[in-house]
Amino acid sequence: MAALGEELQRLLTDGGYRLAAKDVAGRLRSEYRPEAAARIIAELVG
Question: Which pLDDT tens digit goes with each residue over 1-46?
Fold first, then answer.
């Protein structure tokens, strides 16, 4: 359980994650269609 807390803390404080989230948000805004959002999310997961 401590490892999960550490990972969550890193996720919330690491600037790299923040930048990546901003990038994804920008891409989703520029292509605001459900199929585009699904494609972008699939790219990130795959």
Answer: 788 889 888 888 989 888 988 888 888 777 777 788 788 889 888 7
**Structure token digits, residue 8:** 């969550």
> Whole-angstrom Cα distance, residue 21 to residue 15?
10
CA geometry: angle 13, 39, 11, nearest 5 deg: 10
Distance (Å) of CA 40 to CA 13, 22, 23, 44: 24, 13, 11, 6
Enter the pTM of the model: 0.49
The Cα 35–Cα 38 span in angstroms is 5
